[in-house]
């Protein structure tokens, strides 16, 4: 799943990006409010981590603009100050969660995971679709309770489909979420990746809806 990380402190951004990448997210970064706003306005993200103190345009204004434009992705805000008024302002502007600096990067990852799960309507860290279980904490895919070995890219594809609750996803949307908007990946590459995954989890586990895309049935 694609995550947008908006943070102007390069050291913090590096740490968070590394941890989120390790947790299976495709991380894209912005370091000022204006470019963050533009990315969030034009691209699709599963979750956003947004620092409040940003150059050009502050984080709270970015968030307000996104929400005014009905951008509904879950947003976790970060602040250097632990002032409760800032937390209230952030939540009233449409933030879903809040973390004060300094924070443990492990806590941030756990909160980001919870946000993406909740956005997909799952309360538990294990998602079950038919015979398939996705243990998002261990980044493991299980078929009838047995772990199937997946490459990080294969895991990300199953993870994305599992969070869609039976919605059919086009090859183009999958390519965006696996490689980002800049990655030039065509439908054939996605088809090949799906074919590799089917060899591991069963032919019918991912259905192809001709002309529409893919859906995880777990059959
Ligand atoms: Ca900052």
Largest sheet: 5 strands, parallel
**Total individual domains:** 2
* Low-confidence spans: none
Separation, N- and C-terminal Cα atoms: 23 Å
Mean pLDDT: 91
Shape: globular
Q: Indicate the CATH class of the largest domain.
A: Alpha Beta
- What's the helix-strand series? EHEHEHEHEHEEEEHHHEE
| CATH topology name of the largest domain | Rossmann fold
Using only C-alpha atoms, the radius of gyration works out to 18 Å
CATH architectural grouping of the largest domain = 3-Layer(aba) Sandwich
Number of strands: 11
Helical proportion, percent range: 40-55%
List each distinct ligand once.
calcium ion
Q: Report strand order across the widest sheet.
A: 2-1-3-4-5
In short:
The protein has helices at 10-22, 33-42, 59-68, 84-92, 105-119, 152-162, 171-179, 187-201; strands at residues 2-6, 26-30, 47-51, 75-79, 97-100, 126-129, 132-135, 140-143, 146-148, 206-209, 213-216.
Keywords for this structure?
Arc Repressor Mutant, subunit A, Rossmann fold, binds calcium ion, five-stranded parallel sheet, alpha/beta, 42% helix, 2 domains, four-stranded antiparallel sheet, single chain, 219 residues
Give an account of the 3D structure:
- With 219 residues, the chain is of the alpha/beta class.
- It folds into two domains: 2-119, 3-Layer(aba) Sandwich (Rossmann fold), CATH 3.40.50.2300; 126-216, Orthogonal Bundle (Arc Repressor Mutant, subunit A).
- 42% of the residues lie in helices and 21% in strands.
- It has eight helices and eleven strands.
- A five-stranded parallel sheet has the order 2-1-3-4-5, sandwiched between helices.
- Helix 1 (10-22) packs across helix 5, helix 2 (33-42) runs parallel beside helix 3 (59-68) and helix 6 packs across helix 8 (187-201).
- The longest helix has 15 residues, at 105-119.
- It binds calcium ion.
- Calcium ion (CA) binds at residues 8-9, 51, 53-54.
